[in-house]
Structure formats: structure tokens, C-alpha cells
Amino acid sequence: MTASKRIADIFFVLLFLIPLAPVIIAVAILILLRDGGPVFYVSERMKTQDEPFYLWKFRTMQPDAKDSGVSGGDKARRITKTGAFLRKYRLDELPQLWNILKGDISFVGPRPPLRRYVELYPDLYAKVLESRPGVTGLATLAYHKTEETLLLACQTSDETEDTYCRRCVPRKAQIDLIYAKNRNLCYDIKLMTATVLRKISLH
Q: Model's pTM, two decimal places?
């Protein structure tokens, strides 16, 4: 990560944290009152091929000790009503401001993968993770809806895994590498703006 990108990340975290603090507190209380604890979902992700970190989100599903892999239609029944709302507007990702502040991720970059996929596709992720992972990015904007549709149609964990590995991993990596060739501070701001506008358009 370049110094300018890191400075921009810290600047935007501090800029957003003040207006978003009441929202973060309200969401935490809402989850606690409606669904009980835990309020947060913490998942191991990879910052580089060899360096893991823990990604923080608001919990949107009923806990399952055996949970693994990406979410597909096979896990849909575990999504709480509160969680469905949070996911729709991506409010579940607000705790990732902490990850940005720590330097685990950036605002913009490839979505941080689970360890299992990095180990399955080491050559692919060696290239993708040359960019610091992010909350949003080109692949998120261009492919998220398609990925969601594909995975929601899956009825078993094996089907979800197969679909994700065959149809999502290579396509998202392709888009992430396009971002890597064009990344700069202005491009990051453009993608952040596009993410916000996309969410505003949902209202």
C-alpha cells in the first residue's frame, strides 16, 4: 500500500466515523435486542498470501459452529430479519472501519478472501493480493449482484462451493487485476463514490 493511499484511508475513516458513530451504536443495540449476542461476526481473512487477519462485521446470521466457506442459498435460512436489512444496505460492513484504521484493509481493493481459497488458488491470489484488500472495489461493483444471484440459487454447501470456485473466483480475480492496473487515489475515490451512489439509488 502506498503512503498516499494509507493517508487517504485514515483521513476518510476519521471523516466518516463521527457521523456514522450513532448508526454503529444503534445497529449494535438493535442486533442485541432483536437477535441476542454475539453482536459481531469475526472471520479470518487473508491480507496477503501468508498474512491473515480478522475481519469484523455485524452478525447477520444465526451462529453455526460448523459454518465454513462462502454464503449461498444453503445458508439463507440462517439469515435473521435484522441481518437481511443490514445486508441490503451493507450496514453489516460498518465495523470494517476498524480494520481500515488498523491497516488490515483499505477502503478500495479486492475483497479479502478466506484462507481456503488462497490455498486452493495460490497463483491467482498471489497476483490479486498484490493490492491491499478493501471494503469495496471494481469487482464488488461489477460482479457482486451476479455472484449473489449465482450463490443464492445453490441449495447445498457442495453446490455453493463448486459454483463459487468455478464461476466467481476466476471472474472476480480478472476484474481485480483490471483494478490493479488502473489503481490510483482518484480512481479509488471514483469507486467509493460509485459505491455510495449505488446504495442511494436503492432508496
A: 0.90
